[in-house]
Amino acid sequence: MLSAPTRKPHGQGLRQAGFSMIEVMVAVVVLSFGLLVLAGFQLRVLSESAGASNRSIVVRLAGDIADRIRANRFPGAVADSPYVTDWSRADPTGPEPSCVGAGAHCSATQLAADDLWRWKRAAADALPGGLADIQSKATAGGLLFVHIAWDEPAVANPIAPDPEWNCPERKACIELVVAAPQP
To answer: What pTM does this model have?
Structure first.
């Protein structure tokens, strides 16, 4: 019996055993872009987290000074309040006399100076580049305007301050309005 050789169609019977170099390079490029996107996302999340933490501290500091103002019954008009202060930093030595402790006997003005010193120190210690001021406006009646400014992370969107607040340049700034006790 004679058998004729059979021919296989072209390409049949050949099996590819692995990836080509081009496929591997494409996979590495796609993986690299994915990792870069994830790294950028992680940086954004960290920046937003720091910004949220700073805003939380600001709210706590604003509430603290508001409570101090309401607790100290100053016998004069709000425009003359001893709590009105500028953006200057707290003196490192602190006010005299200290109004801390059961034995301390301070006037309303001395207590306000002590409160402001402690509050400004707390703002400087708790916030990056933390500064604070309190303003009074003749047209606002019994209201004091508390401002706290800090350095916001570069990636996050800082809170744009109102130009009337005289906020320091390139800082995020927030305002809290406090109704001061009237005599």
So the answer is: 0.69
